[in-house]
From TrEMBL:
Designated name of the protein: LysR family transcriptional regulator
Keyword Membrane: no
A Pfam family recorded for this sequence: HTH_1
InterPro entries noted in UniProt: HTH-type_LysR_regulators (IPR050950), LysR_HTH_N (IPR000847), LysR_subst-bd (IPR005119), WH-like_DNA-bd_sf (IPR036388), WH_DNA-bd_sf (IPR036390)
PANTHER family in alphabetical order: HTH-TYPE TRANSCRIPTIONAL REGULATOR YBHD
Entry similarity comment: Belongs to the LysR transcriptional regulatory family.
Coiled-coil residue windows: none
Length: 309
């Protein structure tokens, strides 16, 4: 029995599928299947029920899973203690990101860490907000970058790295282009363009409209702020977006301030405060917190504030 087999077994159990587990492990799916079959032969029992559309643990698999996790945790602990005592910084860190605003030099931050610690492998993955927070809470991700909107799970900490005003943008031929600002109550009934539910920017919009007594009519959604600008530039509605995203189609857009109340967008790095972290992960978190720009203009940060990207 090999540790690799246990690692693959835990990944398949947590991801409920061989393909997703392979993607998480950055290996080919047939290799994962082969190692699981070998483990099952050694134990003499099937660990997964493969008869349905999703992969499920058998009764034996359920019983074995805690021991597999404990074995992997023990090995991880041995490596962590050894690295602490010898002062070596090696291993692998994984960062998740929902989107990266142009004002943030994420590539520069990653390159700087690589120069300082070339023996540490760095991975950057794009994901959605829910999966990112889940990955941080469960330890699959060491650091995350996302819009901050709503409470964070217990044990997950955040630091704001971008704080900018949210604005409205319309095509220059739109009737609203004659105005310099638009109030939140005036958004009622207008076809809006926004990031999807679950993002910080959308949470800020939903909260502001709820305070004004209505639900926003979001006609178009896109996962990238710059796409919101391009949709608005085509005359498809009024985009709510961070100031930095306007540049994607600035020549065709008229920008309006949002008033009554104004809305701000925040992006932050998030990490798990509790739980065991490798020396590499701790160094990576500290490096990111120090080197990513902190553009906060409104004072301190409360992770439960709804204003966010």
């Amino acid at each position: 029995m090999e540790l690799r087999q246990l690692e693959y077994f835990v990944a398949v159990a947590e991801e409920a599928g061989f393909t997703r587990a392979a993607a998480r492990l950055h290996v080919a799916q047939p290799g994962v299947s082969a190692q699981i079959r070998q483990l099952e032969r050694e134990l003499g029992e099937p660990l997964f029920d493969r008869s349905g559309r999703s992969v499920r643990l058998t009764a034996v698999g359920e019983a074995v899973l805690p021991y597999a996790r404990a074995a992997l945790a023990a090995v991880s602990g041995m490596r962590l203690v050894t690295d602490e005592l010898t002062g070596l910084l090696r291993g692998r860190v994984v960062m998740g990101a929902v989107s990266v605003p142009s004002v943030l030099d994420l590539p520069g931050m990653l390159a700087g860490f690589h120069r300082r610690h070339p023996a540490v492998e760095i991975s950057l993955v794009e994901t959605d907000p829910e999966a990112l927070i889940d990955g941080i809470a469960n330890g699959r991700l060491d650091l995350g970058l996302l819009g901050l909107g709503g409470p964070l799970p217990p044990g997950v900490e955040a630091q704001v790295v971008v704080d900018q005003e949210l604005v409205a943008a319309v095509h220059r031929g739109d009737d609203l282009a004659r105005k310099h600002s638009v109030s939140v109550p005036e958004l009622k009934g207008l076809p809006l363009i926004s990031l999807p539910l679950g993002t910080g920017l959308r949470a800020a919009l939903e909260d502001a409209c709820a305070r004004a007594g209505f639900a926003p009519h979001v006609a178009f959604e896109a996962s990238e702020p710059y796409v919101l600008a391009r949709l608005a530039a085509r005359g498809l509605g009024l985009a709510i977006l961070p100031e930095s995203a306007v540049a994607a189609a600035e020549a065709d857009l008229h920008v309006l301030a949002v008033t009554g109340p104004s809305m701000r967008g925040q992006m932050g790095v998030v990490w798990r405060e509790d739980g065991q972290k490798s020396p590499a992960a701790r160094a990576f978190i500290e490096h990111a917190r120090h080197h990513l720009p902190d553009l906060v203009t409104a004072g301190g940060h409360d992770p439960e504030l709804p204003a966010s990207l």
